[in-house]
Amino acid sequence: MTTPTSAQPSPVGEGSSGSPTALRRLLYFLIFGLVIVGITGGTVLLLLADITNRLRTPRHEPVTTVESLQISTFARFDEAKVFPVGITALPDGTRLLSLLGNGQIVRLNPDGSSSLWSLLTAPGAIAAGADGSVYVVDYSAPDFRALGKLKRITPEGKVTYYGDALNAGGLSLLAQIALDGAGNVYVSDPDRALIWRVLPGGVAAPWWAIPTVGTVKAVPIGLAYRAQHNQLLAADSGTGTIYQIDLNVEQPTGEPLYRKAGIDVRTLTIDAQGQIYVSLWQHENGQVARLEADGTLTVLAEKFRAPLGMVAVEGKVYVVNSDLPGLIAQINAEPPFTVDVLSSK
Prior knowledge:
Blueprint: H1 22-55, E1 63-64, E2 69-77, E3 84-89, E4 95-99, E5 104-108, E6 114-119, E7 123-128, E8 134-139, E9 148-153, E10 159-161, H2 164-169, E11 177-179, E12 185-189, E13 194-198, E14 204-209, E15 220-226, E16 231-236, E17 241-246, E18 254-259, E19 264-270, E20 276-281, E21 286-291, E22 297-304, E23 307-313, E24 316-321, E25 337-344
Antiparallel strand pairs: 1-22, 2-25, 3-4, 4-5, 5-6, 7-8, 8-9, 9-10, 11-12, 12-13, 13-14, 15-16, 16-17, 17-18, 19-20, 20-21, 21-22, 23-24, 24-25
């Protein structure tokens, strides 16, 4: 006769199969639900912030803040989502403008009209060399999430990738370019807090890692070559710093020319007399300022939508007054986009 066995007690909190109790299932469900709500809510808030920012950024006419200066529209683009970004000048003074939205680099004619100069995918920052070659960060698409690669366009119009190591990781949308007197190309890498140097011939390597200031991470954007001192200038949007970097020494060391926490410094340009100009983003108010010898900034003009690029040519400062693609492709700042010129009266 078989002896009956007694049932073994279940561990506390579990059924006979070892599965969670109804209470524990409910707890898991609540935690999972809160995580989903948090992720969804965060995404919605991010999208709403982007929409609000775009709806709150109307097209103002920029104005000067210095009596002796005037500002006027040099070129105007009424096409939706064309997004002018970068501007440069060839050695002969020809001004070139990159249009992120339609893939074009256009020549700006003296009367403000434009004509096609080169066709890429989604060109952003642009800079010209002394030999007439043009360097541009070309993105995979006109999208804020797209990554860009450095390309070189010869005076004959041949387009090639330039700087393999640099291009391996890709560049974010606000990267900028500058060239020194020896033909080296410098590219800012905002996401990695780096400046890259590409030697003549195309060999690229990280050149200077911009330091944090306290606990604030660097976000290098604007670059400009200061020929009078053989220096590279770099604008750090993250810490509000403009650095000068001596190119006469082997190991780069940046010395602050200007620093103010909370100031969003973006792009740089230097005129033939060595005067430094910087674009700023201040609480939805784009500004152009002059860096004075005493290290202070004098605001020259304001109410730009977004001063994305600048170049100083023949005593004038040309400012790209534009915008960039948003988080939602269907919601973007409306045209017109302009190139405005700041000059003496």
